[in-house]
Design goal:
338 residues, two-stranded antiparallel sheet, 12 helices, 14 strands
């Protein structure tokens, strides 16, 4: 039986906070079942205190309501494998799902594949990795609200090295032979992209990442702060240059990179549409208009591709449209791995 169900979501949801906080206020409220809420809450941890991190920038509330698209939602399913919780960088919990195929590959060959996902309920990336049917370990990291906490945690290359070391030890537990990671994939939803951009800034580490998937989360600030492009502001590209460099490597066939975005306009910081436009311009890649239905009722409007780089623009500027992209992760991850 398929692991997802088609349920029309209420169309009265109205975003009233930053995009980076939707996972806590909308995703976890509507998507995560009450039975698994304590686990997800523990995985995300408490938000950083004001003494250690500034609060996320507020978003202008959107007056839009969406009643057309399906907004179908996945549901947690039982997976064939082992789940573990380990302590990652900064003492924060990290959720692992180790597939039976990964256990077999470790015993026979001493290596396994890893998909590290940042931000969102752990069960969903775990199901997406399970659907690949490969000897993989799903690693899910939740640090709180806003991309800044993810960036600060992983801007030191040693932090990601430490995470991979912890994952390798946990996956290889019970084996007598040395174990190693064969293929490394990074995925992120919404605010989680902050960790991906931080990891990719370090060229040595970027060279070890075979594939990246960003789900409606490539944000940055305006310069000056809060001044939108229409009022003469510009984009702070310091948060985008590492992603552009990785996209160029994908265009050369050295990696795979899939980026998705919605039409949500936060107002006080750059939208994923604006950053996608900047990325395409810097790469010299053109969009082409398309009109097709995607998973969970996503409605695709545009596409750009070059080599192993893909960018997809989807309709919608409401909270359910944002969440749709997280629930489309199984299909988008399969595309990334093709």
């Amino acid at each position: 039986m398929p692991r997802w169900s088609l349920r029309r979501r209420p169309a009265v949801l109205r975003p009233t906070c930053a995009v980076g906080m939707w996972v806590r206020h909308v995703l976890l409220a509507q998507v995560v079942l009450p039975a698994v809420w304590p686990v997800v809450a523990a995985a995300q941890g408490a938000p950083p205190s004001s003494s250690t991190a500034p609060p996320p920038a507020a978003q202008h509330p959107s007056p839009m309501q969406e009643r057309t698209r399906l907004h179908a939602r996945l549901a947690p399913a039982s997976l064939d494998g082992v789940t573990r919780r380990v302590v990652g960088p900064g003492g924060r919990p990290v959720d692992l799902w180790i597939s039976r195929k990964a256990e077999a590959a470790l015993r026979r060959h001493g290596h396994f594949d890893v998909v590290v996902h940042f931000h969102g309920a752990a069960w969903l990336p775990q199901q997406a990795v399970a659907d690949l049917g490969v000897p993989a370990v799903a690693v899910v990291v939740n640090l709180g609200s806003g991309s800044g906490i993810y960036d600060r945690t992983y801007r030191d290359p040693a932090a990601f090295d430490s995470l991979l070391a912890v994952v390798t030890r946990a996956a290889g537990e019970g084996t007598t032979r040395p174990v190693r990671i064969r293929r490394l994939t990074l995925t992120a939803y919404s605010a989680g992209h902050g960790a991906v951009r931080a990891i990719l800034r370090e060229s040595r580490r970027a060279a070890t990442v075979q594939a990246v998937l960003l789900l409606d989360g490539m944000h940055t600030s305006y310069v000056p702060e809060g001044r939108v492009l229409a009022d003469g502001g510009t984009l702070d590209t310091t948060n985008l240059t590492a992603l552009a460099a990785y996209a160029r490597s994908a265009m050369r066939g050295e990696a795979r990179f899939v980026v998705t975005h919605s039409e949500i306009f936060p107002g006080t910081f750059a939208s994923t549409t604006e950053t996608a436009d900047w990325l395409l311009e810097s790469l010299g890649v053109r969009r082409r208009p398309v009109l097709r239905w995607g998973p969970r009722g996503l409605q695709q409007l545009s596409e750009a591709r070059a080599g192993g780089f893909r960018l997809r623009g989807y309709a919608g500027n409401s909270a359910p449209d944002h969440i749709d992209q997280f629930h489309a992760m199984p299909e988008l991850l399969r595309e990334l791995w093709r």
